[in-house]
Every structure is written in structure tokens, then in C-alpha cells.
Amino acid sequence: MDVCSFHLAIPTTTLAAAAAVGYLAGRRCRSVGGGVVSQLRGEIWHAPTAARESEQVGRRHRENLDQVLASQFALWSRYQSPFSLAVFDIDYLQQISDEQGHFQRDEILKRVAGLLGETIRQTDHFSRHGGEGFVIVMPQTSLEDAAALAERVRRRIEDESRATVSGGIAEMLDGDDEKSLPARAAAALAAAQHAGRNRVYRHTGTEVEPILEEGGVTVAEGGARR
Predict the structure, then answer these.
(1) CB of 116 within 8 A of CB of 126?
(2) Does 5 have pLDDT greater than 70?
(3) Inter-axis angle of helices 143-160 and 102-119, to 10 degrees?
(4) Which of 39, 60, 77, 170 has a Cα at 20 to 30 A from 214?
């Protein structure tokens, strides 16, 4: 996965408006400030009664996501300002769709999006990616703090919905660019799925390792308590 996989950005302050939006199809990429970020075509699936409002919301979110990503890479380039990404996929969503239908699939997507939006911080942004998941952009966030937030998201979705999610996180590091950072987060997600799903892995820059919970404290496997 690279930055071109990012879809609709949904800051927590606009979550209520975003609830009317289904999901997006289609995208194209362009160069912004030397980096590659998403430019969505705005093809929105929505309820007919909310068509005009949904199109306006989608346009605002598209512009917001472009600005967030371009800003974070620019701040890192100039000031080494830290930020992290978390990538989540809803476990077995295609199987749910095949067995229970698209309506049930969409209900799960909306429920997970709502819980995610309630759990992240006001400074974070989350976006749809692919057909089954989301990406969170976390400004001023270390890998350790990103791990704690990602695990809170995972636990809450498990506890308060009929779905589970797998996640992968990565922090911007020296040598990263707009392709390698999302690719590392995606590699961590793939490791979480391979390990059995409903868990979070993190990419440290040199290796991928699981995030565990011991007595409510987030720890890296074989590492220190967070």
C-alpha cells in the first residue's frame, strides 16, 4: 500500500457529517510539494436524499486529506516533526458480505468508522483505504504512542461491534518517504493478519513485531512496557 491507497479523510470534528457518506470508488494521484498524495475523483455512494450534502462533505474531506499528508511530510522534511500512521483492515469483511449481504457489510463499516472516530484524538485524521479498512494519520505521535492508540482502537471495536480489526503502525523515520512509510505500516498489517488477525503489529524500521497488552499496559513483544 502507498499513499495513493488513502481515501476519505474524516477528522473527528466532522464525523457526524461523514456518517451520511457510504464509501468512495476510484482515485488518481498527483504530485504535491514533491510528494505523492491522493486525489479522489469524488465518486460517492450515498443515500439519494443526502446526495448534495454528501458530495460537499466528500469534497471537503478530499481537500483536508491532501492538506494533512502534504503538511506532515513537509513538517518532517523541514523540522523533523514526528508523525505516525496506523492501517486497519476489518477482519473477514468480504466473507461477511458474501454470507450476509452488502447491507450487513455496510452496517459494519459504519459502526467501525463511528467507533474509530470516537476513539482517536481531535488532532488525528482517519481515512478509508481499500474496501475493508482505514488509515489513521497521527501528527506529533511517536511509535510508542501510536501503538497505544492503535490497541485502544482494536479493543474498542472488538468490544462494541460485531467485527474485529487487524492493524499495522509505523512512525516516520530518517530515510522514509511518502511511499516507504505507508509500505512499512502495510507490512505490519500483513504480519498481524498472518498471525491470526484481531491484533496490532508495528514496524520499527528494521523489524515487525506485535503489540501486546499486559494488565492494560501496551508493550512490544520482548520489549519495555509503554
Answers:
(1) yes
(2) no
(3) 130
(4) 170
Tell me the catalytic residues.
132
Q: Are 211 and 151 in contact (CB under 8 A)?
A: yes
Helix (H) or strand (E) holding 153: helix 143-160
Q: How far apart are CA 43 and CA 83, in angstroms?
A: 29
Question: Residue 34, Cβ neighbours under 10 Å: how many?
Answer: 11
Burial class (CB in 10 A: 0-12, 13-18, 19+), 91: buried
pLDDT of the residue at 91? 97
Rounded-to-integer distance, Cα 170 and Cα 175, Å: 13
Quote the pLDDT of residue 58.
41
Whether the Cβ atoms of residue 103 and residue 96 lie closer than 8 Å to each other? no
Look at residue 37 in the predicted model and tell me its pLDDT: 37
Question: In the sheet that 6-11 helps form, which strands lie side by side, from edge to edge?
Answer: 6-11, 125-129, 133-139, 83-90, 165-171, 200-203, 208-214, 217-220
Give the residue extent of every domain in the chain. 3-220
CA 60 centroid distance within chain: 18
Beta pairing partners, 209:
202
Q: What average pLDDT score do residues 39-54 get?
A: 36
Dist. CA 126–CA 38, nearest whole Å = 14
CATH of domain 3-220: 3.30.70.270
